[in-house]
Design goal:
The structure is a single chain. By secondary structure, this protein is an alpha/beta fold. Helices cover 35% and strands 25% of the residues. The chain is built from 6 helices and 9 strands; from the N terminus they run βαβαβαβαβαββαββ. The chain has helices at 12-22, 42-49, 65-78, 95-100, 121-128, 163-186, and strands spanning 2-7, 30-36, 53-56, 83-86, 105-109, 132-139, 149-156, 190-193, 196-199. A 7-stranded mixed β-sheet has the order 3-2-1-4-5-6-7, with helices on both faces. A two-stranded antiparallel ribbon has the order 8-9. Bound molecules: 5-O-phosphono-beta-D-ribofuranosylamine. Residues 7, 9-14, 43, 87-88, 108-110, 174 line the site of 5-O-phosphono-beta-D-ribofuranosylamine.
Amino acid sequence: MNIAVFVSGNGTNLQALIDAEKKGALDAGKIVLVVSNNPKAVALKRAHKAGITAFVLTEQGFASRKAYDRKIITRLKEQNVELIVLAGFMRILSGYFIEEYKGRILNIHPALLPSFKGRDGIKDAFEYGVKKTGVTVHFVEKEPDTGPIILQESVDITEADTLESLEKKIHAAEHKLYPEAVRIFVQARLKVQGRKVRILT
Ligand code: GRF
């Protein structure tokens, strides 16, 4: 199954997926394309090093979000992409894009949804003072951070934690959970029933 990973920044989740694929841990999943809206994303270096084609498309010159997304879709179709994995992609996809790949777009969020939605999930949880936060992999729907939940893993916040140490723990949990979710998707073991996602054994 051909996979495209969408990035904007550091790409540590992309790296975890690349490493998992190398070890055979994505089953029949193959990352064929990395899409970035940011030409300076460190993630692009990771793609290059792994020999994966990158498609960089900045928003400039596009009249609408839909026009931008349409261009990406053309590229995804050229490469027969069947699964979109958002890994720190700092753009909200249009409804048009989401319809086109309905049920085939995954995202990872650095908190236990539905708590701490938005861009600063780690910091917001830390500042709120919760004792447990974590990581969520979910399907993408039009409203950000709301789609049916595939996997979650909790992370404890102790009194010794700083924002930096919490970030480290969250990222470590992400790097384990995301490849696992992708593998389960590739194996066609996810069954969505309303808000609930069943994992077939
Ligand atoms: C991750 O924390 C992810 O949960 C969030 O964006 C961050 C991306 O990090 N959506 P990286 O670019 O994969 O290192």
